[in-house]
Amino acid sequence: MDACLFRRMAEVEDCHWWFRGRRRVVARALEALALPAGATILDLGCGTGGNLSMLARFGRLAACEADDGAREMAVARQVVPVEPGALPDQLSYPPSSFDVVVMTDVLEHVEHDRPALGSVARLLAPGGRLVLTVPALPWLWTARDEAHHHWRRYTKPSLAGALDAGAFRVERLAYYNTLLFPALVASRLLSRARQEMRLKLPGFAWTLSMPRPW
User: Fold this and answer.
1) pLDDT in tens, the chain (214 residues)
2) Hey, how many other C-beta atoms are within 10 angstroms of the C-beta on 174?
3) Total-model pTM
4) 56, 80 in Cβ contact below 8 A?
5) In the beta sheet, which residues pair with residue 83?
6) Which domains does the chain have, with CATH numbers?
């Protein structure tokens, strides 16, 4: 993303309803896993670190981020060290390092998503899980997606297909923020008409996945 967007994210992600709502969704997914004490978790593409404190409650947390400026802001939170790293092939972790990999709005920033998901699968220990959120619905594409350096928005079938190609078996795939979706779509369309992209609007999908055993 553009550097100014990372700075803006750091300013609002602790209190803005959208970020808080996404943290609740991810936390509920992790709670449902009933992870053992000492479970290893990777926040892959942690951005400015808004999820680090929440994720650290669930196990031994590691984090990586490709953008230097965002990584500095995440490190400043003093939750865990944040390593440089990017998909698909710039990750320093050995295979089978983690019980859970969390990716919150990361995959859409990767040009080739299927090889990237294959790299993620290799990071997971046997029985490991991927918890993933992405922006949904290509028809909601606007200049904001371009400013955030997105390559795509997903539908359920397109995300399921990418996960299948990356050797994952989907356990749950669903949209969230659906109650607010009609109002948010109206706002997005109005914003598009005015060519003013002021709000980051959801209509996002999240998945809970695990690598296939073969």
Assistant:
1) 667 777 887 888 999 988 999 999 999 999 999 999 999 999 999 999 999 999 999 999 999 999 999 999 999 999 999 999 999 999 999 999 999 999 999 999 999 999 999 999 999 999 999 999 999 988 888 888 888 899 999 999 999 999 999 889 999 999 886 555 455 555 555 555 554 444 444 444 445 555 443 3
2) 12
3) 0.83
4) yes
5) 64
6) 3-208 (3.40.50.150)
